[in-house]
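seq/struct pair 1
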Amino acid sequence: MYQIEQSVKLSDNVHEIWVHAPHVARNAKAGQFVIVRTDENGERIPLTISRARDDSVRIIFMTVGKTTHALAAIPSGGSIADIAGPLGQPSEIKQYGTCVLVGGGVGIASTPCIAKALKGAGNKVIGVLGARNADYLILEDEMAEICDELHIATDDGSKGHHGFAADILKKLIQEQNVHAVWIIGPTIMMKVTSGVTREKGIKTFVSLNPIMVDGTGMCASCRCVVAGKTKFACVDGPEFDAHQVDFDMLMQRQRYYMDQEKEALARWQEHRCTCGGDR
């Protein structure tokens, strides 16, 4: 069993946990993920490593399906059955020059590790964080400490730029010589935002974590098309060249298990009510 050292609700449906997992913390690199199982009968779900310190790793996730709701319900001091990792290919960290990290929604969780690694490699790092409104912004202070510049965008204008992260990115590449960009967030956001850098041919990475299921390449659920070839997001990625990803096919695949996810969540919620809150 792996202890949850801290469990915090960051916003309405976004949660942060620190898990005591020395084997993961010692080897984790930017861009990698872990597989978590809440209990011995639970499903295995992939979650991005947001940060590692000493013997613990931080995971930030949105409660969407049955397992993420179950994970959020475990209090500080509780435990989970398994955490395996680090898995996936690390981010391509080297000295580029000026790098921009764009995080959207819960995708912001992945940006501190990458930003810190890029700074360590001698890059100028600019952060762009986007959310529906100010209440959904996460890790703003942490990213401000790491980045040379930090920009905020909210859909409703409650904080920062009134609009989208793509607007800020477009302005940045007009004003500065940007050499590499990372975009992490909802699939449609990654598709639209990566279009901003396409014309100028700026190296752009996106993380395809949202479509992973098994996380080891065995289930083939995370098949995606990159540069016309079939890739597995979990073992070949999760980061890929944004300009070579078939986003339309990707969004189709994301809808494959929606009915099963809704059914599993409904059963779990019914079980909690019947059992007085027990998992």
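seq/struct pair 2
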Amino acid sequence: MAFHIPFEHRHRGQPIYIGFDVPAVPRRRWNLWGFFGFGLSLFAFLTAGFLSPLALVLNLIGLRREPRGLARAGTVLSLIGCAVAGGVVLLAVNAEKDYRARQQRQLDQILNVELAERTSRTLQQAEAEFREFASVNAGQLPTWIDANMVAIKHKDGWGESLRFDVEKDGAKLRSAGPDHQFDTGDDLLLKVDGQCERSSHGEI
């Protein structure tokens, strides 16, 4: 605004100046939240994005202040970092699941080998009973029903009873195996020597 020195306040030799106030130059403002948020969002990539959530918080606060340039850029970088961190966590979780699944399969295989050996001994014990029966009955084995009454007394390694089958190639003792189901690929069999009578279950 214009100003001058009133006449009553003038002194001899004092110059008279009429002009305008020099406009104040606005001081450049700094958005510290945006500045530190942007810097942290860049550094977060060195941590596989695990510091990105903290950087995102700083950048979101920075978006509420001027200037917003760094805060906007930091927000984008922070979101990308959060996605990277989420992918790393997902990969780690899946890798852990796969590792545990492989470990469990290996343990199951080891256990099944031990149980198969136990089942083999049980089959031999049951077969010995039938062999003893046949030795005192002129080589004749019990009927299918009577034979199964003997077989079910024996449990395989997986806790299931044995089964006596009369087939075309002779009599067999059968274990259901690891899947606990008869007539599948993992059944354990042992042939029983002797003659079998015809029965309603099958013929030889």
